[in-house]
Specification:
The model has no long low-confidence stretch (mean pLDDT 86). With 455 residues, the chain is an alpha+beta fold. The chain has a 7-stranded mixed sheet. Helices cover 23% and strands 36% of the residues. The protein has helices at 122-125, 144-148, 173-184, 231-243, 252-258, 261-270, 287-293, 318-330, 388-400, 429-435, 439-450, and strands at residues 4-6, 9-14, 19-26, 33-36, 38-45, 48-55, 66-71, 74-79, 85-97, 100-109, 118-120, 129-131, 162-167, 188-193, 197-200, 207-210, 214-215, 221-224, 247-248, 278-279, 299-307, 310-315, 335-339, 347-354, 357-365, 380-383, 405-413, 416-423. It has 4 domains: 4-154, Cathepsin D, subunit A, domain 1, CATH 2.40.70; 162-257 and 446-450, Rossmann fold; 277-340, Dna Ligase, domain 1 (2-Layer Sandwich), CATH 3.30.1490.20; 344-445, 2-Layer Sandwich (D-amino Acid Aminotransferase, Chain A, domain 1). Helix 3 (173-184) packs across helix 11 (439-450) and helix 4 (231-243) runs antiparallel to helix 5. It is globular.
């Protein structure tokens, strides 16, 4: 039997689950096909296991989703491309590709980070197709606008978005600028004080309420600006907003993970991102070896909960380092010990990432007598053009946490650029004033792209 040639990506249909068109990545490395699904819930129907789920069939359009329901065929432990194993539901559905219709097994993958909304695995290709990886859309032309029209009945009609700015101080520069930018682009934006929000946890009708009992169920998106002291409650609110279908610019998991300095450092190492040599230990008995491990003094001691340079101490000698480390440990504080990059001269680079791109960057220089640059504490800053290597490092760091908006701090060393940390709620004042760029506007545009509402 002759086999049909297809490209590395094709448009397919899954009409029995109400998805008339979806762009699929042909992935012969995966055994089973998968589809991006959210709000996955197991139910019992006529004594059998079924699953309900929502699919965003068009890439980068989170406002458009199809509510689906399928009988559970199986549950399997699937290893993702990152090496993590996940338990996933498997359903059976009819796939239409070109002129062929046939049944396939499809796993439901709750991963917003998928580059394609669907992956077509080798079980579906077997004895039917040959893949030409140099081509795309061999069977059907890539007419995205044509396929998008199939979902016209789902598209919200609106002249603007309804946004919520989740923060604690309306008068901060960054918050005022985001409100200004949203209103300038014709959107309605409401300031939501984190401390005045509360939630109703209910399987049938979860809610987020605001001071006085107002139910926040009509927001298209929430912009989180969560200060470190409010991380736990702020992230809980973001999870609740997500559960009621509100798009959150930076998810709760992205924010909480990026603020765990130990977890971040481990994640950077796993993903091959260069950082200053860093040590972590609990016992005071290991202090001397910990100091030697990072290259000896001078070195940096960081509290895991530090932010904006606070809770960061330098130690010029081994004796001073031992005293600082043991003092922190006696207070039951968790700390990181990090090598001192002398050649950086107290300078670092802040790269501002929006939607996977570096939109602005500045060089920050510490004031005299300080080892770490901080414009909040008297440091200087200037506009800088970063290298391609630095740009790639910054983008990769933000992508690891799946942050749509991030401030990525880099330091230049004799070993090349090193990553210091990733900030999930970066301030706008310094970088906008120095570069002259309207970054608040870039953030609002990124939300518009994610939520493609018709005008």
């Amino acid at each position: 039997m002759s086999k049909i040639i297809i490209g590395c990506e094709e448009w397919v249909s899954l009409n029995d689950i109400k998805i008339p068109a979806i762009k699929a990545r042909v992935d012969s490395g995966a055994k089973t096909s998968s589809i991006q699904a959210k709000n996955i819930k197991r139910i019992i129907k006529n004594g059998e296991a079924w699953v309900t789920y929502d699919v965003n069939p068009i890439q980068d359009n989170l406002s458009l989703y199809v509510s689906c329901e399928s009988k559970v065929f199986d549950t399997r432990l699937i290893k993702s491309s990152s090496g993590e194993s996940q338990k996933r539901y498997v359903i059976k559905t009819i796939l239409e590709l070109g002129n062929k219709k046939f049944e396939i097994e499809l796993t439901l993958a709750d991963r917003d980070g998928m580059d394609y909304r669907m992956l077509l695995g080798r079980e579906a290709l077997k004895n039917r197709y040959l893949v030409d990886t140099s081509k795309s859309f061999v069977l059907i032309d890539n007419l995205e606008e044509k396929f998008l029209k199939k979902y016209d009945y789902l598209i919200k009609q609106s002249s603007g978005l309804k946004l919520g700015l989740l923060a604690t101080n309306k008068d901060l520069y960054s918050n005022k600028r985001l409100i200004e930018a949203a209103e300038a682009r014709g959107h309605k934006i409401q300031f939501l004080n984190i401390q005045h929000c509360y939630m109703k946890l209910d399987a049938h009708k979860p809610e987020v309420r605001y001071r006085g009992g107002k139910i926040l169920d009509d927001l298209d998106a929430v912009i989180p600006r969560i200060r470190p002291s409010m991380t736990f409650y702020g992230c809980a609110l973001l999870r609740q907003f997500s559960s009621i279908g509100t798009y959150c610019l930076n998810s709760s998991s992205s924010i909480s993970q990026s603020r765990d300095k130990l977890f971040s450092s481990q994640l950077f190492s796993i993903n091959g991102i260069k950082i200053p040599i860093t040590g972590f230990a609990k016992s005071p008995l290991e202090t001397k070896d910990l100091i030697d491990m990072v290259g000896g003094s001078p070195l940096i001691v960081k509290l895991l909960e530090s932010t904006q340079g606070k809770g960061v101490v330098s130690a010029e000698t081994n004796k001073a380092a031992e005293s600082v480390i043991n003092a922190f440990k006696s207070l039951q504080a968790n700390i990181l010990v990090q090598e001192f990059i002398k050649e950086a001269g107290g300078r670092d680079i802040r790269c501002f990432i929006v939607d996977g791109k570096v939109v602005a960057s500045i060089m920050r220089e510490a004031k005299k007598g300080e080892f770490r640059s901080n414009i909040h504490q008297g440091g200087k800053a200037s506009k800088i053009k970063i290298t391609i290597e630095e740009k790639k490092l910054a983008v990769k760091a933000a992508k690891i946490f799946k942050l749509d908006v991030a401030g990525v701090d880099i330091i230049r060393s004799n070993k090349g650029p090193l990553l210091l940390e990733v900030n999930s709620s970066p301030g706008l004042e310094g970088i906008e004033s120095i570069t002259g760029k309207n970054i608040a506007n870039e953030i609002i545009i990124s939300i518009e792209k994610k939520l493609k509402l018709s005008s």
